[in-house]
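Sequence in, structure out.
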Amino acid sequence: MYRVFFVALLLGLPVTALAQPGGRPADGAAARSSVEDGFLKNMRQVTKGMVKAGEGYFSPDGATIVYQAQPLNYPFYQIYTQPLSGGEPKRISTGRGRTTCAYFTVDGTQILFASSHLDPNLDKTEADERRQQEEDKASGVRRRYKWDFDPYTDMFVADLNGKIVKRLTDRKGYDAEGAYSKDGKQIAFCSDRDGDADIYIMNADGSNVRQLTTAPGYDGGPFISPDGKWVIFRSDRKKAEYLQIYVIGVDGKNENGAY
């Protein structure tokens, strides 16, 4: 969820209000309305009918969004596209596994996303999460948001009908949070393949993977600058879970932060 607000701030885009199923405001929305009204105008709800939805990104032509949402009958997020003008969501991911961080290719014909649908223990992973969610519901527990760095998460490219056309990563570890360069030739992403979440960059076909950061702590949410020379990312290296903004050259040099 941090990524969608981060992108909106960088690009000067309006941030769409999120709501729970049935059009009810998310918890705390009423309390925040007096503050939000001073900065955000013309807000409208785009998604509905999901347990929760977020991390939305525009297609290159601005007519469609891609986002992650948890459907009513499944415990993990899946990836969907939906016209901003209305209509039903179209599922792009396989329907199984944890999914996240979808992003249109620069020509708008394909979608990059991360998924754990190839988890060899997926039946157990799903059953464990369903059981936990049922226990929480029965006891009235609402857990603090926590993202799972699933070690079977890899990055894929699919067409607009959800057919996977290429698997980009195949190393054990969390590979996700990918974003294309402006020319579509490179992808910056987060991976903990070395035991710690760091920033990597690779060619758009998954070749020539290079590690950019090595500092202990979480480095993630990268985006490549329009001139293709820099990668901006977030990191909690100074204090766990307290994120700051950093930049580093695409050659792994001249790292600067925090901002």
